[in-house]
Fold this protein.
Amino acid sequence: DNTGVFEVRQGSLRVQRPVLQNATSTLTAGTWNVLDGGTLTFENSANNIMTIGADATVRLGNAATFDRVDTVQTVEGTFGLWDARVFTTAGNLATPGILEFGLGEFFDTGAGYDDRTLLDIAGDADFTDGLVFIEERGISEGIYRIIEWTGDRTGELSLANFGVGNLEWSLDFADTTSGFYNLIVTEVTPTDPPVGVIPEPSSVVLALSGLVMLVRWRRRRGVR
C-alpha cells in the first residue's frame, strides 16, 4: 500500500504482495520513482498498468525497468522521463494529465537537437488538456526533441512551467501523418534599468503603503 513516495535507484526490488494501487489496470495513487538503474517488479499484481490515475505519478530514469507500465495507454496523473530515458509505447496514448521531462545539459545527437529523453508514441496521440512540465536536471540552451508519434494527433499540449534562472523555453510541434514536439530553450540576458529613471508615482505610493503596513505590523508585534 503506497500513497506516498516509493523510489528505487539501484538494484532490483520485487514486491511480492499484491499492490493495492494496482488492483485494476489503473494505478490509482502513489508516486513510483524508478530511476538510474533501478528495477521495480510487482510479482503478485495481476494487472498491467493501462492508466496512470489522476492521483498517481510514475517516473522512469535512464536505465530503469518498471515493466508494469510498458502497456500504458492513458496518463491522467503524471508520467515522467528523466536523464536520457527513451520510452516507446505499445500503441496509442492519451495524455489529459502531465508529461514530465527531466532534461540535462544539451547535447546535439546529430540532427540539430537532443532526443536522448524522448516519449515515442507508436500510434495515435491525444494531447487534449495535456500539460508538459520540465524538471531541471542541468538543462541548457538548445533544442530538445521530447515527443514523437507515428499516427494521428488530437489536441495540443501546453507548458506547465516556462523557464528557470536565465533560461526560457517554449514548445514547437509539427505533424502530418506523424509528428513531434520540440522544446526550444533559449538563454535570456537580463537588462539593467536605464540609469536615472524616475519611478512612476504609482510605484512610490505602493512602496510607501507597504512601509506603513510593515510599521503597523511591527508595532502590533511589539517589534521596534
In short: The first helix runs from residue 201 to 220. The two ends are 52 Å apart (CA to CA). The chain is about 10% helix and 40% strand. The first strand starts at residue 5 and ends at 8.
